[in-house]
Amino acid sequence: MLMSVNIKLRDNEAGYVLAFVLVIVLMVGIVVVPLLLFMSSGMMSSQRHEEWTSGFYAADAGIEDASHKILHDYEALPAYGTPLEYTITDINGYDVTITMDAVWILEGLETTEYGTMPHSELVVVGHVTDLEGDTGTFWIEMTYDDSLPGLLKLDKVGAWLPAGFTYVPDSSGGITSHPDVPENPMQSEFRSGTALEWDFTAPQGVLFEELPPPGGGGGATEFPIKRVLYFEFTPAEEPSGEFSWLRTTRHDVYLVWDIASGLYGVTSTATNQETGEDITIEAYVGGSQLYESMGEAYGDCQAIGNSLMKDTDYDIRRDELLYRIADVKAGIADIPAGATIELAYLYWSAWRRYPTNIISYSETQLAELADEIDEAKFGTKQADQSWVNQWVTSGRTQILSNDHGWSFSCRADITDLVAGLDNPNCKYKVKRIAGVDDRNGKWYGDYEGYYWSTDDEWSYAGWSVVIVYSHPDEDAHQLYLYDDFLYMDMYDTIALQDIEGFIVPELEPGDEGARLTMFVGEGDDAYNDDYIQFEGHYLPHDEDPYDGVNPQNDVWNGKSSGLDGEFIDGVDIDTFDATPYITQGQTEAQVMLGTWVDSWNLVYSILSFRTEPGTNPTTLPVNILTYIYQ
């Protein structure tokens, strides 16, 4: 019986094995198959991510290529409104199409209602200095040439800093000392960076010339007029694409921005060569090319002139006008071929006896006097040796009273006239000054209408041409023009406040580093003890106290170094070399004028300094001129 039972049990074991196998198969179907499917999906996702990454890098390479072109001033950069499109093939298996479009830098910040084109009358330049410690300094320099009719008022100054840079609170200076200019700007996020806006509190804006000048001072006439706003930012690194702008209350010149800074919208699309799928990146790329683009445009200035009077009886009284004498010309010969005339001014100045006392004159009376003397007949000698003469009108007339009579200075802008000449290296002359009479003391009826200008110790009449030019082969210079008409009475002194903004480069032996040119009226050889000092040293410099033209104690002696030492009677147009008194790295200088018993008038002075281009952001080569009077 027992053996029979055991055999029966063996016959029933096959069913259990089948059930166990079925369970295992079911578990494999539930777990393993989805696991295999998941692994396959992961491999496909990884492959897709790799393809997307390759496409992203290809599109990013397009952005980098456009940035390189912008930052290195690619010659085919697009103009505003004319996009540039080009393609780079086979980057990680992608073809990349790049579109660059110049963007108005103030788009989204200011209205386009009053135009999007820059203006030449008002200029703003931004630059960075003092990248030391934790902060840097951002400078906004504003220059106005006073050529617009009517009043120019500002109501906003702005600046933009890219992402990662932050304004330091309470760090503003310059024009922020004016009560209507806030010390701290309003800040807002813009293009991933920060827009800083100093909105003036005066509802009608602030007159440009009433804003505080750099370095203090004020109260004197400036041309052009320069103002500065500066602030600190962190970190102390060079930002990329920063810019500044101004807003006025006028609609003809409403907005002015830093045209040295460019902004471009860049779109880069990477297309897979096999699948045709696209990946697109969009970016704004900014570039500030202020110094790089100016690196080949340096230059300098030239000044010449002559007297329109002479003393015929050697009694120190200039008694004859030279209107009928042909030889009152002067020539320029040193402007290099191919130079660009950046600026040219004609100055004329003279003394008149009547009316004898104008101290109490009203503005209306002074304006009537100005109308009498605001024209000069100016001539240029052409290539065919003929003279072309024309009357020019003063754009700026200044009048000064003295003990017995009055003097005047006029300035006319002749830039277009000189730039239009076949060659600016030619002869120039002034044939006549309106309102200067040569009655020679003779009686011609009532005094009214006869304004004698001759036969007196005070008598003088003269003219000068100043030409500023740029040329790629010239050294970089920083120029300063002072033409506020001054009367220097006996025992008087005047100091031009520290002149700043240049940096003296390393000079080779024989190089000229600093030069001063001045136009003085009523200089003569009869009285001495008039002098000029540069950095505390008398000029001509100590090694040569008499340069054959001007002794140190009688610089305004009627002999002009600008005319090879020619005695031109009553007028000095002198140039002094101050190179021995400057040193490498120097960034400022001071000029002092003085007199003892002689009296005279300063019409203008021009200071030209060799400068190191691009090493100091406050230094601008000559094709963006900086005129400073403090």
Characterise this structure.
The protein is mainly β and 630 residues long. Helix content is 14%, strand content 39%. The protein contains 5 helices and 37 strands. Strands 5, 8, 9, 10, 12 and 13 form a 6-stranded antiparallel sheet that branches. It is elongated.
Attribute tags:
630 residues; mainly beta; Immunoglobulin-like; 3 domains; five-stranded antiparallel β-sheet; 39% strand
Topology:
Blueprint: H1 2-11, H2 14-71, E1 84-91, E2 94-102, E3 122-132, E4 135-144, E5 153-161, E6 166-167, E7 173-174, E8 186-190, E9 193-199, E10 206-207, E11 225-234, E12 243-248, E13 255-257, E14 261-272, E15 278-288, H3 290-294, E16 298-307, E17 309-310, E18 320-321, E19 330-331, E20 340-352, H4 363-372, E21 375-381, E22 387-393, E23 396-402, E24 405-413, H5 415-419, E25 427-433, E26 461-471, E27 477-482, E28 486-488, E29 493-500, E30 514-523, E31 531-534, E32 537-538, E33 559-560, E34 566-567, E35 570-577, E36 588-594, E37 600-610
Antiparallel strand pairs: 1-2, 2-14, 3-4, 4-11, 5-9, 5-10, 5-12, 6-11, 7-11, 8-9, 12-13, 14-15, 16-26, 17-18, 19-25, 20-24, 20-26, 21-22, 21-25, 23-24, 27-37, 28-37, 29-36, 30-35, 30-37, 31-32, 31-36, 33-34
